[in-house]
């Protein structure tokens, strides 16, 4: 509706102008023509629009059986992706558009096409799941319990509902009160979770993607990203949940858990665009390797 003709003037405001599909190139740029003004993290900090922040990348290693599943799924996904791009003409980039077209092909009435697309999606999902639900990440999460206890409110971003449940169960064993949010919850149940989160009944709320956008979440000062994403848009949305300016001069902290030598690893190009923008703001960004003492990451994430 907003892009229909008939308006003499209009203004588009967004924190995440980028998209993971071709909607930007196909609709927004032709309509608005150009960006009139943009604010980066450095300017937002100087104008006190957002809180100062620290980001910790915390690396883990797969357990042997997880590594096997990941390697097998990666090899299969890579082989099928090449076929989909070079034989069936799917766009290699942006990746979101490739996935969108792949979903369309999976519903094709041509058996060969639909089968290859479906096999790719299955391998891609399996690879993403083994990263998101790695037992090594849950062990690190347990190590971070002291930082969560020191935080006023913590949000945990997971890839799946099971990963969110496992995270809350793991932290519950450390005496941390938490709840899982999911899209299949009734609106009144969600409101109850948020109310309990805001008044301190819950110290942490975990959700698979639900908290990324579109929901007003009570202020938090610590975010833990259990499942990373290739999407700069999603990373910006998640950071926004803890960067909102608070009455106090609190420093927001973001912990990004990743598996070494995978698609999540910053050393392999993950989050490259996002990191460049954050580093330009001169905020603290530190990487903790799997062999680093965990208390170092805890100290970094404490208020």
Description of the molecule:
By secondary structure, this protein is an alpha/beta fold. The chain folds into 2 domains: 51-62 and 134-301, Rossmann fold, CATH 3.40.50; 64-132. Helix content is 46%, strand content 13%. A 7-stranded parallel beta sheet has the order 3-4-2-5-6-1-7, with helices on both faces. β3 (178-180), α9 (187-198) and β4 (204-208) form a beta-alpha-beta unit. α3 (64-86) runs antiparallel to α5, α4 packs across α5 and α6 (135-143) runs parallel beside α8. The longest helix has 23 residues, at 64-86. The protein starts with 22 loop residues before the first helix and ends with a helix. The mean pLDDT is 83.
Name some characteristics of this structure.
seven-stranded parallel β-sheet, Rossmann fold, alpha/beta, 303 residues
CATH class category name of the largest domain:
Alpha Beta
Secondary structure class reads: alpha/beta
Quaternary structure state of the chains depicted: single chain
User: What is the residue-averaged pLDDT?
Assistant: 83
- Specify Rg, calculated over alpha carbons: 20 Å
Number of beta-strand segments: 7
- What is the number of independent domains? 2
Unreliably modeled segments: none
Q: Report the sheet-strand fraction.
A: 5-15%
Q: Kindly report how far apart the N and C termini lie.
A: 44 Å
Outline the biggest β-sheet. Answer: 7 strands, parallel
CATH superfamily of the largest domain: P-loop containing nucleotide triphosphate hydrolases
Classify the fold: give the CATH topology of the largest domain. Rossmann fold
Helix content: 40-55%
Query: What is the count of DSSP helices, taking H or I runs of 4+ residues?
Result: 12
Task: Report the principal-axis shape.
Answer: globular
Question: SSE string, helix = H, strand = E?
Answer: HHEHHHHHEHEHEEHEHEH
CATH level-two architecture of the largest domain: 3-Layer(aba) Sandwich
Major beta sheet, strand line-up: 3-4-2-5-6-1-7
């Amino acid at each position: 509706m907003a892009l229909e003709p008939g308006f003499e003037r209009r203004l588009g405001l967004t924190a995440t102008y980028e998209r993971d599909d071709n909607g930007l190139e196909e609709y927004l740029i032709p309509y608005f023509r150009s960006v009139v003004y943009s604010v980066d993290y450095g300017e937002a900090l100087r104008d006190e629009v957002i809180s100062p922040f620290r980001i910790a990348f915390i690396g883990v290693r797969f357990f042997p059986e997880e590594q096997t599943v990941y390697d097998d799924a990666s090899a299969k996904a890579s082989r099928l992706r090449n076929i989909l791009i070079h034989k069936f003409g799917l766009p290699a980039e942006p990746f979101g558009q490739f996935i969108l077209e792949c979903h369309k092909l999976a519903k094709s009435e041509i058996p060969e096409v639909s089968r290859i697309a479906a096999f790719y999606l299955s391998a891609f999902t399996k690879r993403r799941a083994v990263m998101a639900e790695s037992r090594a990440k849950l062990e690190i999460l347990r190590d971070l319990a002291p930082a969560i206890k020191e935080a006023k409110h913590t949000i945990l971003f997971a890839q799946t509902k099971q990963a969110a449940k496992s995270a809350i169960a793991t932290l519950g064993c450390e005496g941390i009160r938490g709840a899982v949010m999911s899209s299949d919850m009734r609106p009144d149940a969600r409101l109850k979770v948020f109310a309990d989160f805001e008044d301190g009944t819950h110290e942490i709320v975990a959700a698979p993607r639900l908290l990324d956008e579109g929901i007003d979440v009570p202020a938090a000062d610590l975010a833990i990203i259990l499942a990373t994403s290739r999407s700069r848009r999603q990373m910006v949305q998640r950071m926004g949940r803890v960067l909102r300016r608070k009455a106090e001069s609190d420093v927001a902290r973001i912990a990004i858990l990743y598996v070494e030598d995978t698609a999540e690893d910053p050393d392999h190009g993950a989050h490259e665009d996002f990191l460049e923008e954050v580093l330009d703001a001169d905020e603290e960004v530190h990487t903790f390797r799997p062999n680093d003492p965990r208390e170092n990451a805890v100290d970094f994430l404490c208020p």
